[in-house]
């Protein structure tokens, strides 16, 4: 038996027997009581550094979660209450951590720690995106009961866009090792900019993408239920024409916001690990939970006033550790130390924010005047 066959047998033998299959010495499977073998050798072929079965297993879990979300939990458009939002978010976080446990079990402690660090960093960075999404929903007056629809279809675009960006990043890092130092320098500069310069509130009304869509396509200012497009008479020609609704415009802007957000988050995770599997899975699991958490966070994001400075320090740290490891002659910065420092910085930012923005403490948060229900 080849090494590949031995590995395949070791990985799937217990599961195959439990499912009623017989594992043959040549690595193929026989259905119990049948004589025709089923060759699953392709499952152990490496793709982007990991066996195909791991990628297929991850994608199966993600698809199942999305089907369960849309087909069971949210079959009808309705408002999502804060309590439901917190419960769903807790479920997604638990699943993300459980997958991290699987990574630890299959790939070892270092991969498990890198996954957890990436998951925490991505989840925390994504919180900053909640403010932008709330502004988008407010600008386009998206009714609260349709906001989940936009976020759901938005996540499908995120899954594809992140795959493309991470695939390109992994290719660049594998071909040109110096690209990792470019990512690190970019993170340090971004962190310093966030600390000292700050960020301007997005002006969605003057956004060039919004202007382009309104100039080049038919766009209606009226909502038409859950529809992204509506067919109605063109006011100029009188002919029936397809129009984009504000719901679709909001979807486009949410996707654009994620692309901009990924410019920071993708280099950050590559500075933690260059393993495409760890990078992609930690990204997607973190983002999946963000959709559920949005409805609870949007109303209280102003309380995390010190989270952005904490994120800036995390970016500076993640970028700096690449150079520190080289200066100290280390092959890699210790994963345990990296996770501990990241937790400490983010935890301090969250705790200090909650202390300083207690209901009794005066605070004029920038979310104060943002309406999240669009009604």
TrEMBL record:
Membrane topology: Multi-pass membrane protein
The keyword Hydrolase belongs to this UniProt entry's keyword annotation: no
KW rRNA processing (keyword) present: no
Gene Ontology CC: one annotated term: membrane
Keywords associated with the record: Membrane, Transmembrane, Transmembrane helix
Transmembrane region(s): 52-73, 85-105, 125-143, 150-172, 178-196, 247-271, 277-297, 309-329, 335-355
Record's subcellular location: Membrane
Homology family: Belongs to the TerC family.
The protein's name: TerC family protein
Annotated source species: Fulvimarina pelagi HTCC2506
């Amino acid at each position: 038996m080849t090494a590949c066959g031995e590995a395949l047998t070791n990985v799937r033998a217990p599961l195959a027997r439990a499912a009623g299959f017989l594992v043959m010495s040549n690595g193929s499977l026989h259905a119990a009581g049948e004589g025709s073998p089923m060759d699953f050798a392709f499952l152990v072929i490496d793709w982007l550094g990991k066996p195909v079965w791991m990628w297929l297993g991850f994608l199966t879990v993600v698809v199942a979660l999305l089907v369960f979300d849309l087909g069971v939990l949210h079959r009808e458009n309705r408002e999502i209450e804060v309590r439901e939002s917190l419960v769903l978010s807790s479920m997604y976080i638990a699943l993300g951590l459980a997958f991290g446990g699987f990574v630890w079990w299959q790939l070892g402690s270092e991969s498990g720690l890198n996954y957890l660090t990436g998951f925490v960093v991505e989840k925390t960075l994504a919180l900053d995106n909640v403010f932008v999404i709330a502004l988008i929903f407010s600008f386009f007056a998206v009714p609260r009961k349709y906001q989940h629809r936009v976020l759901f279809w938005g996540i499908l675009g995120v899954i594809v866009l992140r795959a493309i960006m991470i695939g390109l990043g992994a290719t660049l890092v594998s071909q040109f090792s110096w690209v990792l130092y470019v990512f690190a320098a970019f993170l340090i500069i971004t962190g310093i900019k966030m600390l000292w310069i700050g960020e301007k509130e997005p002006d969605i009304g003057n956004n060039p993408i919004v202007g382009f869509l309104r100039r080049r396509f038919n766009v209606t200012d009226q909502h038409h239920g859950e529809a992204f497009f509506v067919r109605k008479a063109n006011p100029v020609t009188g002919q029936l024409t397809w129009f984009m609704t504000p719901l679709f415009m909001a979807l486009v802007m949410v996707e654009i916001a994620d692309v901009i957000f990924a410019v920071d988050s993708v280099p950050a995770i590559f500075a933690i690990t260059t393993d495409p599997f760890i990078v992609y899975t930690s990204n997607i699991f973190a983002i999946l939970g963000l959709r559920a958490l949005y409805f609870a966070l949007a109303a209280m994001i102003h309380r995390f006033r010190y989270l952005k400075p904490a994120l800036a320090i995390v970016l500076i740290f993640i970028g700096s550790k690449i150079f520190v490891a080289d200066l100290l002659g280390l092959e890699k910065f210790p994963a345990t130390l990296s996770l501990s420092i990241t937790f400490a910085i983010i935890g301090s930012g969250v705790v200090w924010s909650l202390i300083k923005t207690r209901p009794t403490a005066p605070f004029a948060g920038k979310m104060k005047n943002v309406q999240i229900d669009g009604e």
